[in-house]
Specification:
- The complex is a heterotrimer of chains A (342), B (398) and C (83).
- Chain A has 342 residues and is an alpha/beta fold.
- Chain A contains 14 helices and 14 strands.
- Chain A folds into 2 domains: 193 residues, 3-Layer(aba) Sandwich (Rossmann fold); 128 residues, Rossmann fold.
- The radius of gyration of chain A is 20 Å and the shape is globular.
- With 398 residues, chain B is an alpha+beta fold.
- Chain B contains 9 helices and 18 strands.
- In chain C, 55% of the residues lie in helices and 0% in strands.
- Chain C contains 4 helices and no strands.
- In chain C, 24% of the residues are buried.
- The chains are: A alpha/beta (342), B alpha+beta (398), C mainly alpha (83).
- Chains B and C meet through α5 and α7 of B and α3 of C.
Chain lengths: 342, 398, 83
Amino acid sequence: MTAIAAAVPPAAMPGVVKTTYRDALRAAHRDALRRDDRVFLMGEDVGRYGGCYAVSLGLLEEFGPERVRDTPLSELAFVGAGIGAAAAGMRPIVEVMTVNFSLLALDQIVNSAATLLHMSGGQCAVPLVIRMATGAGRQVAAQHSHSLEVWYAHVPGIRVVAPATIEDARGMLWTALQDPDPVVMFEHVMLYNLEGEIAETAGATDLDHAAVRREGSDISIVTYGGCLPKSMRAAETLAADGISAEVIDLRTLRPLDDETILKSVAKTHRAVIVDEGWRSCGLSAEIAARIAESALYELDAPVVRVCTVEVPIPYPRHLEEAALPQAASIADAARRLVNHHG
Amino acid sequence: MPSLGADMEAGTLVEWRVKPGDAIHRGDIICEVVTEKGDIEVESWLTGTVEQLLVQVGQKVPVKTLMALIRTEGEGAAAVPPAPAPSAPAPSAPAPSAPAPPAPTPPAPTPSAPLPAPQPSSERTRISPAARKRIEAAGLDASTIVGSGIGGAITIADVEKAMSASQPAARAESEATSVTAIRRAIARAMARSKREIPHYYLSQTIDMSRALSWLERENSARELPRRLLYSVLLLKAVALAVREVPEMNGFWQDDHWIGSDAVHAGVATSLRSGGLIAPAIHDVGGKSLDEVMHALQDLVNRARSSGLRSSELSDPTITVTSLGERGCDSVMPIIYPPQVAIVGFGRVVEQAWAENGMVGARRVIHATLGGDHRASDGHRGALFLRAVDSLMQSPEQL
Amino acid sequence: MNEQELREIVKRTLHRIAPEVDLDSIDGKTDLREEIDLDSMDLLNFFVALHEQLKVDIAETDYSRLTTLDGCVQYLREKTGAV
């Protein structure tokens, strides 16, 4: 199955193809499997079923059962197997259905994957990529909808990335596979169907820098993952109101790219942090603290956070929507910071 | 907050150099304050242990505000603070804070209250950190700015509005803040002098040829860094002349003259940025010429880089102003209150000079005395100037 | 050390004494005492600084030769044997 080729529209600019976030991820897998025979993919239903979110659809047929492996329903076991394979010289990609289930493998990730390089005195790297879906919006209720990225971003020894654009969906995997440390990659469930254009030649992207997705001068919206498109829409609305918002896509949640964040705050003097995680002890708290530590005297207003309401994600659509950051609530928060009159 | 000049009303604390628990000695520098005369290092008048610091860095407080508690040796833990240091000087030292400036008007904090470090008031103006930085940089007064931010906070936009509203004034102010402050200090001191002090003036032309020839010989034998300036001879001569006419040295306070044993000569020093200050070289009479030269060099350089100490500013007992080689022939100087005399020297000029029936070309200098007629009379003033003259004729004795 | 280097040293030294003056705008023949307001203490500091940097002795009787930029450079060339 060649989704990208099939999707080429007649009117596309030369060298540019229309694709989706999901297809770009699949292209990244195909590329990695072709380029490096140490790379293999395993996880629940990644083979015959094509992956819970259809990322690996067609890869079993193309690369065979040795390299696209369905595993038993035990996160602890197959993540652990991936760590062993990585330590033994392979370049495994392990897919966990969602971050919610990854907690069953937390011991393997935090106690083994994150520590081995350190505890072996640099002898035993774990070049493993663990991919997992995250976030809410598909009405799959609390046990399938949480955003627990910060649980991993807390831990030294692993890198945590969150591709939020088609370019990063296409480009982050290969770079992650080159990292000697385990990389946890979060794919927001609402991004898989994201459509857009990408250069035919698009390839690996870096994992070190946050990206300014939209330049602005009045306020910095700092976000990542599933909240990026919402923040971009909010910035669009704000522009209509005469407020110039800069949108920062963190891309990598650990280590954080302080420089890009602080540079933006130094320019706009105001910051809204948008995080689908909960606010208490969340990634938003960490970013706010760093801004306060290093850019306090650049601030012209308090730092504001737009996060998920502190409840388990509700099932009914209207409650789920109400619980999550939305373009409207992001724009409201930004407006309050910029247009205050005493 | 010590008075670092007769007309100083308040100072802003820039830095504490000590912390509670530190042992300090009389003369140690305990903090740095900024006044209209620049940054001044404040010395302790007491020996003891720092008990508590009461003023915070950045605070502007009136003269005589209690700034710190110092426990002197043998004293129990101070429940009641010692009297504000500068108001109780040792007998040998002139009271630097006198004459008392007009009592600070409210809303200044009560100087005598030994309160703990001030707590931020709950009615503190809300200012965003970025706006605060700009307000300080621009030297604006936050209380004049209306805040439009959350909770009425002052924001960058408010500061910019305030700056553009007072653009020409604000710009001039920020460019020349220190200069205007010094000008104001000079204005106050000089106006007070002319208002209160009945000056009399005397002048004497002093033959400088012996002194200058001696100095040239002396300097030709010296390495460049050890050479003397002739103003050192003049300073020393003034200090020694005071021994003969002590009324010239000291202060006029509360309707009577208070003398000083030591001669702390204020040296009128012009600043490159404009303005004039007259910090003291301590005990000029007790110093050798080399020591006076060293002190003068040090003092002038520090005055020009704003590094003076509190005692240097607060306690000159007589002032000397020398116009230097590019000045005019003579100067009618104005006494710096509460001092009682000022000696002015014009530039050295060569002129025809008759002596013993012969006319020759001599290098001379016009010395002028401005005296406070409340403290001395012209006759004593004349004796004083003649003493300076005669001392200059025996430079090797200086 | 060539003349240009000497001139730079002289200017740098003067700059420390009169930091607010644009030395590039000063004519080499103007009297520095008048032009940039140097008093006897400034001049002494200037001479001492030159003495320390270039290890030249400057007699007091020579002071008058060092009152212009050109004069300083010329004098220091003679003293240091610079070309």
